[in-house]
Request: fold
Amino acid sequence: MTKLYDRFERTVGGMKFAVIIILIFAAMMTVGTFLESYYGTEFANRTLYKKWPFILVQFAMFLSIFLAAFIRMPPKKRLYGFYTIHSGLIMLGCGSFITWYSGVDGQVILRPNDPTRRVYLDEDLLTLTYPNQGKTVEKIMPSSAFETQIDETYEEITLGRYYPYSERVLNWIPPRLEHPNPERAVDLHSAQYMLFNDRVSEEMILTLHPEADTFKSNVTMGPLSVHFLPAGLGKCFDLDNPSKLILWDARKSSCFTPEERGIEMQKGESGNDFFVVQEKDGENYSFFPDYSPYPLSRDFNSVQRDSHLRLFNRKLFQKDPHLFLFGEALSYYDEDEDVWVVKSLNKTSLAELPWMGLQVRLLQYEKNLIPKKTPQYTLPIQKNNEMIRGRERALELVVKNKSFWVTNQQPISLMIDGVKVEARLSKKTIFLPFEFVLERFNMDTDPGTRNPASYESFVKLFTPEGVEKHHVFMNNPLKHKGFTFYQASYSQNPETGTYNSTLSANVDQGRPLKYLGSIFLVFGAAWHYQITRRKKRLKPDHSILKGLDSEKDSKDQRKQT
Amino acid sequence: MKLSLVILLALFSSLSFGQGPLSEAEPPYFCTAEMGKVPIQRGGRVKPLYVHARDVMKHLGGETSYEGYGPVVSYCLLSVESLGLQNPIKLSAPVEHVELKTFLGLSPDKNSMTYAQVKSQAQMIQAELRLQGQEQTSYQKSLSTLLSRLNLYMEIQAGQNWVIPAMNAKEVSWPFLTDFLQESRVRSAVEEYPKNPMFGSMMMETQRYLEVFGPKVKVEYYFAKARLPVIAMLVCFMALAALTLFKHFKIAMGLTLATVLIQTVYIVLRIYISGRAPITNMYETVLFSGYGALLLSMVIGHFKKEKTFLYMGLGYNVLTLLMINFAHGMLNPTISPLVPVLRDNFWLSTHVTMVIMSYGAYALSWILANTLLIKKKFSTVSKKDETYYCDLMYTCLKVGSVLLAGGVLLGGVWADYSWGRFWGWDPKETWSLIALCLYVAIQHGRYTSWIPNRIFVPFTAAAFMSIMMAWFGVNYILASGLHSYGFSQGGAVFLGSFFLIQTGLIAFTMTSFKRPSQSNP
Reply:
């Protein structure tokens, strides 16, 4: 046994092992820097730097450094420098281990005059909240760089696939709920169009289905407004009735004009135009075409937004560019001819619009499917310190064989058998034993430019001992109760224009050891070479070299003397 | 506004030259090269117009003089278009990217396009850029560079680039050229500068500016004009020639001292102008590493009583000076303000200086290793000599490793102090550690004679590639990470060729380093 141990000691403490392990370490780091350059800092951490093979190599190096010094005991004067170097390295290793084991590395985001204790850590956390039962469940997400199947169940919810990096991908899927009135389901159609001219092109997905929550029925493109409407309404848009009014009957999925039904325009007491539609059920619906697309209630006091009747006053859409899309048809007002034009659309043809040379193309038309963007795993891409692909973390929640996605950008709320559950994916947080307030954030710029020259935070600390004021800026951190706070970055609130300050918060018990180790290492190295240099000083000067010319020179000189 | 200026101009040009109305005033109007002394506040600092005009004109058209006019006059002529004057210079934007040429409808043999033409296609270029999405291809970069050039060109043309100091007691404001040339100001300069009162008004304000803010701008003007790097390069080259070709050590030593002196003056002036350690971008680090390596080689050579070190130091310094003078596409000599995190002179000067000096020390070993490789291939080197020279290289490695270890650890301490972590696997950090590991592995191997000389030499030559990777590669190839402030463009090709040539050289000379037929000691 001792023999075996001796052999182990000789091998691991030996120079060949040291050289090999250093080379393996260097090779792994090389791979790491390339991973980082393609896929980002976090990806490299999650696949290499913070994974066991790399940590194992570091441990092997540590062992090699330790044993190399150990087998050269008892101390020899010649090796004093060598011992110092190796003890410096051992201290560095121990210090790093302490940091890794018990250090805290997080971020504090300070909004102006908004006290906070919260420190955001690196780990991702799923929180399930049952607001009515006052219950919260938490689960840390794996620190993986790839798709991971979690397969854990809590009550009705099973955690399925977890994507640390994902992008939304468009899918056309059947709706979850069936329409209460199947005949009318056709009005809830969806379509994808491309609008383009020589300079710009934009794809748009429009839908009337309430389940397709990420898409809308209206979009604007600069001055142009696009409206997506039921297919049946398209028929009436080119009717040349004098009032230019169209009514939509959602019960029948059809449209009609007031003129068709012989409805006449009336003048109200205050001089406003109005008309009344009498339906077969005997109800009367009064419309004020210049004011509202919805009918007024019987007592003229409120607008009936849920009515099956809706009015379109085309005159209101003649001034600015408006494009109406009805699935496989479109309509717009042609100013030159003073007519409303309706054109049919299909996947193989283009329709020209009267503005800026724009053309429309129908890419997809679905009556029974709805567009939904679901997360899909992707390898991340980082450019200029910013993630440009795979920014969203996504977790699949499976409830009764249906899957829902919660992401770090979009929390969801579910009703499971009448119980409300809110799910959110966020960074794990811890709370400081004292409170922070950002009093003022200051950013100086280089004269005549907008480049930041310095940024600084004036903060107040509320501690049990009282209030302390501090000034934190680049290269001037704040130390308090074992925490160190650094001015890390800042962000601007897009709505208010005020600046938020980001401080990195840090606890590192390994720091003194790392500093001491550094000093040992550097001075040890200098000392070592000093000792070994003396030994070689007596080496005679060579004068043989025909080639290296300075040598020749010295030879010539010697000849002369 | 413009009209009144034209009248003003006409008035004074007729007054000064007695030539009658403006239409007869000839270019370069009131523009003179002397204007280079006038301060300008651009890019976050105040500098002489000469420096700004030189950088801007070089950026716009790739040249510093056009139609026989120097940079200041060309810049001035472009600016006076805002006064409604004719500009005789037709500037062309460099267009080198093949895809960009196709897009612009340029024939493949043409490498530039006039700004008038670029301007007419501006909207299309913008649309094309938008179509490229977020992925940063070289084509996208060329599109956005062209657009930024055009914007700068138009800014100058509109008189919105040239600002001139206007003193009010001890306060300075920076009006644009069109706002600066007020009648009262120009009139007051007539007496002192009867020939060119426009220029005179600028010089009078400059005088007042220098009185209040000190002579820094003036110093920078002469600094920029002196072109010390070129002189240093020539002297250093002569020193190397004296040492290797004419084998006259004393002359070589004298020229070496002259080189060091010139470089010291250059670096000290740069420190005075920028107010910081001269090691904040690629240009400065390359310059400093050559300078530092030469100093190191002189010190080591002196103590070791060995002249070969001087050869290594001169050889490396000449190479860096060549880069400094000719690789402006990759190494930008412009002095610009620092990003906030670097504004700490203590850490900047200790950490970066130590790392750069270590690069210099390793570079000495690299020069000698390659020399030995070539010598062994084409001539013979005795076993004893080989060992001797390997010992010299080993000395360089020792110095380099102590400096690099110190530099990396100091960097860790600085990072801990300003970012809150000692080590974060940032590419720059990691690559410095990789380089250190490789050199340490070689040193360990040689210390125990596990690595014989025949392998030690090519290994030492090859290991310098890891330094180049840490130094240039992280910026030009990996281009990510927190250390991104030192980044500039166009170095990937340089680095690729370096790796190729170095690997090729080692492969080519490999045969001469084969294991001898008899058993190796």
